[in-house]
Amino acid sequence: MVESMACATVPKIVLTINHASGAGYYAMAGQGFDPNFTFGWPTARIGVMEGDSAVMAVHGPELEKLKSTGQPIPDELKERIQKTRSDYDRWLDARFAAARGHLDALIDPLETRRILTFALEVAAANPHPEHLILETL
User: What residues contact residue 85 under an 8 Å CB cut-off, 6+ apart?
Assistant: First the structure.
């Protein structure tokens, strides 16, 4: 999939309607593949990983150690876990992604067909946008 995306010569238009994270996000025309347009519905969740996955990545070894020794989870660790989970949940919000340039636009689901048609028309009219940059230099 990654090779296909890297070698694709067709327009790359991304519409995230629900969840895009991790390697799947990048392999499906993520920012590294320089898509022509990236859109998201307000329901989109875009980021590295979900909060629960982040908790395990950040606090997993500490939790496993406590579990193996039969010790309870200290309140301080519970607070850090909750902060990690809430931070990642906030960072996944479509508005957070759009505000940081990870999306070109948040779109109304009712406008999807019109906006995708426009994006395809623009991409078809300019199949090699990278050439414009070189020609202007």
Answer: 51, 52, 54, 55
Q: In this predicted model, what pLDDT tens digit does every residue of 104-119 receive, in sequence order?
A: 999 999 999 999 999 9
CA atoms of 122 and 129, how far apart (whole Å):
10
CA dist 12 and 46 (Å) reads 17
Measure the CA–CA gap between 13 and 119, rounded to whole angstroms: 7
Structure tokens at 29: 């025309």
pTM reported for the whole predicted model? 0.74
**Of the candidates 1, 87, 85, 105, the residue with the CA atom closest to the CA atom of residue 44:** 105
Strand partners, 19: 45
Coil/strand/helix, residue 134 = helix
- φ, ψ (nearest 5 deg) of residue 34: 50, 60
Helix (H, G, I), strand (E, B) or coil at 34: coil
